[in-house]
Design a protein that fits this description.
Layout: H1 2-12, E1 26-29, H2 34-39, H3 46-53, E2 58-59, E3 66-74, E4 81-90, E5 93-99, H4 105-111, H5 128-132
Antiparallel strand pairs: 1-3, 2-3, 3-4, 4-5
Length: 161
């Protein structure tokens, strides 16, 4: 009976967060920001688009004039993020850009931060009245406002005879 009571008491001290399994962060694809999208303009050639957006995640032999940039990330404690940009070419010239709502780089970084519950922070300042409630610090005996360091130090190496 004693063993059962001790075991149950140990289980009650555990909280739900201590039993969660580790979930690794999964990042796939190329993140395309709002700033990168704004740098694109119709009439650019493939090399210029590749310089701005990087290598496309998906290129198809059946759709040689289409590049897909897909990005997804799953991070524990944060909602999954999914973004997609598709660029279309005709005769190696950019003719169309399809994308959803893309965040700026700063907005994306803010989205990746886990939102914790706001907890009240302790007040780290004391009023003069509160400081006066503490006892005054006593000066060491024999202190004449001089440094507490000795005036001479012992030698670091033994003195030769």
């Amino acid at each position: 009976m004693l063993f059962v009571c001790v075991t149950l008491a140990g289980c009650s001290s555990l909280n739900r967060d201590s039993l969660k399994t580790y979930v690794p962060e999964v990042v796939q694809g190329n993140f395309v920001s709002k700033e990168q999208r704004q740098a694109l303009s119709l009439g650019m050639d493939r090399a210029q688009v590749k310089d701005i957006l990087g290598t496309p995640l998906v290129t198809s032999l059946f759709h040689a004039d289409r590049w897909d940039y897909a990005f997804s990330i799953r991070r524990q404690g944060v909602a999954p993020q999914h973004f997609q940009v598709t660029v279309h070419f005709k005769d190696n010239v950019l003719t169309a850009i399809d994308n959803g709502d893309l965040p700026s780089e700063a907005e994306f970084a803010q989205r990746l931060v886990a939102q914790f519950q706001n907890t009240a922070l302790p007040r780290l300042q004391a009023s003069p009245e509160e400081l006066n409630t503490f006892p005054a610090k006593k000066a060491p005996v024999g202190d004449n406002s001089q440094s507490a360091l000795p005036s001479t130090y012992p030698p670091l190496e033994p003195v030769s005879r």
